[in-house]
Amino acid sequence: MKLKKTILLLSGSLFFALAGTSVHAVDEADAKKLLKDSQCGKCHDEKRNKKGPSFKKTAAEYKDKPDAMALITKNLTQPHEVEVDGEKVEHAVVKTRDAARIKNLAEWILSR
Ligand code: HEC
């Protein structure tokens, strides 16, 4: 009897451990909030190309690259020049320094 109880307890914690992993999946609401707060929507949409490529297009382009996360993270955090309507402008960076939020946004973009 005692053993059965232990097994039940163990499988119970295993369940919570696994459920915990899936909860860690991309936080869509926070990704969207960060995009909004950083005013990325002026030039990017999830599915539609605007002045910049849609995140769906970016995800398709990067999905087979082993260093996709590093490249996207750099793109989101380091100012660099891009061309908008034939003019060179400085690309915006996200309005946070929280590495976890930046990682979450990069994962969200790559999973479009
Ligand atoms: C003024 C318009 C503009 C704003 C604002 C802007 N972007 Fe961009 N973004 C672009 C353009 C144009 C490109 C394409 C650069 C290229 O193809 O070389 C780009 C490229 C990107 C890429 C990489 C696409 C690729 O294929 O390499 C990502 C990711 C991205 N932007 C995310 C963001 C995020 C996140 C924000 C907000 C912090 C943001 N952008 C704000 C215009 C903008």
Into which percentage range does the β-strand content fall? 5-15%
How many alpha or pi helices? 5
CATH topology: Cytochrome Bc1 Complex, Chain D, domain 2
Order of helices and strands: HHHHEEH
Characterize the overall form: elongated
Strand order, largest beta sheet = 1-2
Report the strand count: 2
Helix content: 55-70%
Any idea what the radius of gyration is?
19 Å
Ranges where pLDDT stays below 50 over 5 or more residues in a row are none
Question: Overview of this structure, please?
Answer:
With 112 residues, the protein is mainly α. It contains five helices and two strands. It has helices spanning 2-23, 28-37, 55-62, 68-77, 99-110, and strands at residues 81-84, 87-90. Strand 1 and strand 2 (87-90) form a beta hairpin. The site of heme C has 23 residues, from helix 3, helix 4 and strand 1. Heme C (HEC) binds next to helix 3, helix 4 and strand 1.
